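hiii, so i know i said id send this last week but things got crazy w the move. better late than never?? heres the sequnce for the chain we talked about at the cafe, plus the structure i predicted for it. fair warning i was half asleep when i ran it
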Amino acid sequence: MNVSTSIRFASLDAAEIALVARVAAASNRLRLLPVAKIATRLGNGSLYPIVTLFLLAARVEEALRFTASAALSLLLAFTIYPLLKKFIARTRPCDYDPSVASELEPMDHYSCPSGHAMTATAYAVSLMVAIPLAAPFAIAMCCTIAWSRVALGHHYVSDVLAGAILGGTLASIVTALLF
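okay and structure toks below
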């Protein structure tokens, strides 16, 4: 991590670490960390093909257009977030304060934006535009994945918000072009 980046985020990290610690402690106390680990692993990308294959098999009317929109939105998100993370270079909460770390290791070094929140939202927006009745599932999926990232000490709340905003923006542009 470069010094200017650590200085730039020092006050924000200090302000948010208490919230991360509270979410992590509550999740641990309520024995929800196994759920957080599953949500995070599904948010690594394995959930999206499963849901897409289900929609295609069920012959949902907009499944093909949704698949194109979701695929392009995810491709953009998976391309952009690693570049942003390296550019922003924000320290993860689990590196800032090891007491919030879980035994599940982060996939990369930096925190902002949350790639999990970005890709989940990119997928969810595509899904909700194509199949509005899927909105409750899509919103629950995004919220669960975002919560899991904070509960495991991998992200600050602002990281998941930034990821969700970016993912939603990407998918909104893509779906506007395709629908």
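btw The first helix runs from residue 3 to 29. thought thatd interest u
miss u guys!!
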